[in-house]
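Entry type: protein chain
Record version: 2
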Amino acid sequence: MPAAAPAVAPTITVDKTSLENGGVITVTGQGTPGKPVFLEVFNENKVRGSHFDKTPNKETGKIPYKLYLADEIPAFYRIYVPTSAQPILDKFKKEGRGWSYSGALKETGGDVAYSEPGKRAIIVYQASLAASIVGSRGELLPALDDKERVRRSMQVVKGRFRSVDRTIVASVDQKDDGSFTAKVMIPQGVAPGKYVITAVTDKKAVSAPLAVENKISFPMRYMSNAGTSLNIFIPFFIVLALATFGVLMGAGGGFIINPVMLMLFPLPHNIVAGTVTPTVLFSQASGVINYSKIKFISWKVGITLGIAMLAGGFIGPVLTSMVTVDEFKFVFGWILFILAALMFWQTTPGYMSKNKKETAILKEFQKRAAEAAAAKAAKA
């Protein structure tokens, strides 16, 4: 039986060199007969990715509590594998949140195309509770060797893009003569700029890269730290409504805006938390002014609570890098559920009848508001 032909670098062509807010690129090329072809596609823009290792060591049982932080992960990254690998991907999808990115790459053969994220530096911190309290990521650990850096970069990529469909796609249709065709989908709302496409047969047989430019225009705006483009009018009107309701509740609306943004837009949870925090200042500032005018503010209590919130502001941003989006949603969801249940309970007739003092205070506040409104009308 004749030996298989040695792999040579594939050649590729694309049907277009530019896109308008995403689209489909048809990639065609020629590979080595009998050798599967894989595509690596990434965007030139870089974003931050992280992985917090809290998996117990199989030998010692100890939890490492190490934070792996990469500042230059591609804003878009996918490996395209042969269509015959779809059953393998379906198997990993069934594993849910615990699916293994490195395992999926290995079983599909796509690990030969994995390259770009593994080149990027990864900083490692030894996290601790004491460090989190003072707003620190922890002790800086020595640099990783090349093999460990590649392995950890796969965990960072999975943490960034999360699902199987957003990291590995089975769309390379290859014929017996080695020629192949693949559909590369660049979704709407992803990063603008150059998308680099490379075909790979093995680590030594790599095609020359081709670039496709993805353009966006107003009202789409690119969020560089999130790696996502958004139509700015949509979140504007959503936040307008939510902030109005939030101020009525005595808050800036962040506790409502946060989960809504996570549900409606493909944004990392730590970016949502960080973005919502300063925006609440605007609604809070106007709320403070108006509540102060109608004498609804207890400054002594407010300042005391503000000091506690100041301390929490140091701890929270560090902790967001140490939890996954699923953990974030789970905890945040339960907090909202408990608060909603308590507020509903406090509106029941039984509760109100047992808390006459609270009812009297509420009536007094209503009286003050009415008097303030009447005085303002008289001056006008």
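Comment: The first strand starts at residue 11 and ends at 14.
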